[in-house]
Every structure is written in C-alpha cells, then in structure tokens.
C-alpha cells in the first residue's frame, strides 16, 4: 500500500496526520508500505519521535517500510538528526548543531536516556545559552516525561525522542513518545474512571490525580511539567489514544482526534530566552520537609 | 546523632542524575532498613544535579507506607539540597502522605510489601 504524508508541523494538524498514518496501517502484517513524502514540504524535526514510533511498530509487525520522494530539504533535516539512518540513508553532519538526535530507548534505559540528554543538550557548545535554572528545569522535565512513560505506559516497543533548536525563534522543541496503553486506559484501569481520551489527559495533568497504585506514590510528573511550561511561557501538547491536549500561555484546550494513537506523545516547546531563576518563592527549610 | 546512618545519594546512585525510580528504590532500601533498626538516617544530596519526582517517590515517598509520619520526622534528615530540590521533595512528601491516607491504596501497598517478604 502507498500512503501520502502531508507537511508535518509541530501542531494538532501534524499529530492528526501522523496518527492517521498509524490508523490506516493498523492491522498490516508482512506488507510493503510505501510512504510518499512528495507533499511533505515541511517536517518539524521533533515530530520524528512520533513518526519513528509509528514506523517502528509497523516494522515490529514485519512490514517493510519505504520512504519515497522525500524532498531534499526534508531529507537534509531528517538525515542530520539520524532519523533516516534507520531507513537506509547515511547520517549527515549537523554543521550548526541545532538537532537533538532521534533515538529509541527501552524502558530499562533510564540512565542511557539521562546521558543522551546530558550529551546532546547540556554539554554541547552549539546549544543556546540558557540560564542554569532553566536548563536544570528543562532537563528535569524531560526526565519526568521519560519516567512517566516507564512507570505508566507498559510499552514493550520502547520510548522514542527527538528535538530541534530554533536559534532565531529562541525555541527548543522536544518530543517523547511511547507505544504503551495510553492515558485513557490507564485512568480507566487504575483510577476506575471511564473518561473520553481528551478528558483523561486533562484529568492526569490536574491536582493530585494519579493512576499510580501500590507502594510507591506518584502523581506529580505531569503537573510539574505543566507548571514549568506555564512559567516558561512555552507550550506542551499531549496526544494519547484519540485525545489531544494543549497548554499554551496558561490556556488549556483539548479535543478529539479522528483516529486513536496506540500510546502517548508529550511534546514540549521551550522558550530558551527565559531568564527566570526557578527558585520557588516559598523557601522550604530542611527541617520543614517531613 | 551518634548512631545515625549517613547516606550519600551520589554514592548509592553512582551518578549526579537521580532520575530513575529503580535508583530511588536502592536509596529507599537503605533508609528503610536503618529505620527498621531504630536508627536515625541522614541523607546527603551533595553533588546531585538532577532529581525527578519518580526518583524521590521511590526513595522517600514510599517510606510513608511502612513508617509513620512521626517516625520519619524524628529519624530522617536530608541535607545539601538546592532550594528547588527541597521544594520538590516537600511536594513529594505531601503527596505521599495523602496517597497513603487512602485506605484502598494503603491496603494494596501493604499487600505488596508482605508479598515481597514472603517470596
């Protein structure tokens, strides 16, 4: 079968297009799937995390994937971040150092993920000058997303990530994707709430709601992330099942996609020129903690 | 604290990046073992550069299952933490206290602990 991919931007339409690709290829086994990219005149690099997750899942079902008619400008971006190396192309050097490579991790790879973030974000001289406070918060936020995927998703096919820095726009995009059970099912099975997919995402990002059960408490990861992004005046988008949720400049919107994605996408946009200290106003002394 | 156990998070994890729940579990096991012996525990976060709620939930949050708030307050000390890390730990602790006040979750937690000990 052949599927045409449109321009993929880091927005609802971009998610909708990739989730449609996932839905339309669902059920294929030992097939040859050609993805015609001639119409894709834009591809936000961090969306490689979702694209790669979908293609990896297809590969796991013994399908052969062929990416066809990729425009040179897109091929250049997707080669620089190592994405196309998975599909027979050679990696190109990233002269300006604006890519955060596409990478797949297993759930046991917490430390490997942490060193990838250190190597590709923190210790690279090409990266934008971010304040120490912002860098620490950003780093911890992506670790929270990874931990959330490890702790909640039950993914067997791994966790996928990719990012891109836009120097002129002073923006850093970073996405983490898992192929797990999704937030809706998690909320249903562990909190006993049968919510629509978008409502389930909203539930998981609010208050002290948690789907965590057992002896280790949880319920902070997504809230911390949301608080940080609000302070940073950045943007967070979450796709899980057929739910789409976005928080931008303190405003939340959500809705349903036309198809369901078998997993969860957390996509961040960080404002890199943010100079806040991120030391909370209410100081907590060591004796007050317990 | 004469008979206190001094723990270095950095040494136990072997990295300044304290992000994984499994690493938090290693810290928890040492703290819990000492508390069961009635010892005071002092935990140093010196040289730790990144912390997540997942790590802290495993390392410290889950103490509120088997141990009482009074016991933890009397026996556990943390030190060498950055202000924002202290604020994060405080939130983890507050959330854990609330979590273990929910009887259904608590029963399940106790069941898991007993299950582990029976293995």
Question: Can you tell me the residue ranges of chain B where pLDDT is under 50 for at least 5 consecutive residues?
Answer: none
What structural class do helix, strand and pairing data of chain B support?
A: alpha/beta
Succession of helices and strands of chain A: EHEHEHEHHEEHHHEE
Q: Strand-residue fraction of chain A?
A: 15-25%
How are the strands ordered across the major sheet of chain A? 4-5-6-8-7
Low-confidence stretches of chain A: none
For this entry, what is the oligomeric state of its chains? heterodimer
Shape of chain B: globular
Number of strands of chain B: 5
Mean pLDDT of chain B: 87
Choose one word for the global shape of chain A: globular
Whole-number radius of gyration of chain B? 14 Å
Query: Radius of gyration of chain A from the CA trace?
Result: 19 Å
Model description:
The complex is a heterodimer of chains A (290) and B (119). Chain A has 8 helices and 8 strands, in the order βαβαβαβααββαααββ. With 290 residues, chain A is an alpha/beta fold. In chain A, α2 links the parallel β2 and β3. Chain A starts with a strand and ends in a 19-residue tail after the last strand. With 119 residues, chain B is α/β, with parallel strands linked by helices. Chain B has one domain. In chain B, 59% of the residues lie in helices and 13% in strands. Chain B has a 3-stranded parallel beta sheet. The N and C termini of chain B lie far apart (35 Å). The chains are: A alpha/beta (290), B alpha/beta (119). At the A-B interface, α4 and α5 of A face α2, β4, α3, α4 and β5 of B.
